[in-house]
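Hey, I was hoping to borrow your eyes for a little while. There's a protein on my desk that I can't quite get my head around. The fold is given in discrete form, as structure tokens running alongside the sequence. I'd be grateful if you could look everything over and explain what you see. Here's the protein in full, and shout if anything looks odd to you:
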Amino acid sequence: MILVVSGLHYLGKPLLALAIGSGSSPQAYLGTTYAAYSQSLAAILLVSTGLVLLLIMVRDMMTDMIARSETDTLSGLLNRRGFEDRGNKALMRAALAGVPAVMIVADLDHFKAINDSYGHASGDRVIELFAGTLRDSAEQRGIVGRLGGEEFAIFLPGANLMTGRLYAETARSAFAGLPPDDLGVPIAVTASFGIASLRPGDTLSDLLRRADAALYQAKTEGRNRVSLFIEEPPRSLWQERGRSA
């Protein structure tokens, strides 16, 4: 808008000079109405341009500060705060649109032993590679974050349990297949995954809690696997009578 006004100002200066006069000499020009108008408008445009540029700089700085506050520096993924903020918004959109969604919680197997045996630098390298595997597998549609330590979460809007399982199996097998030279440790490293689907009335915490329960099941069943949170259907009256007979 300021550029448009500035352009009109300079295009209209010759016409205005003809209409109200600009003086016959430099000394005479300074005392004309045209000179006062021209200099005042130029000053206003200059100040306005400076203010707009300042606002743009402040906006960019705020955007950068927010991004930094929501990003995990080691993995490059969203941190817990960023994941919860974006996850809550995506969950609300999915619920309003009536589309399915799943939550996946992933945890590196025996990560403490890796840190203890090979050092924190090696552990950091494993974190970085696992984060990259999750991000690449999710592409653009998933919201991927590091909740803390060796625990990660992925929210997939538009996915059901089977789609979520396919994603998790793809990420699990890709990471488990990384050669030790890439990992920086002389052993294969694996991860376990738990998946839960969105239900009516769910909060992000509800989804995370059920996915975490499925993750616990994957851990207890031997690790390096994917488990789904599937509740048992309610027992029928006939089943209850059969049990009591």
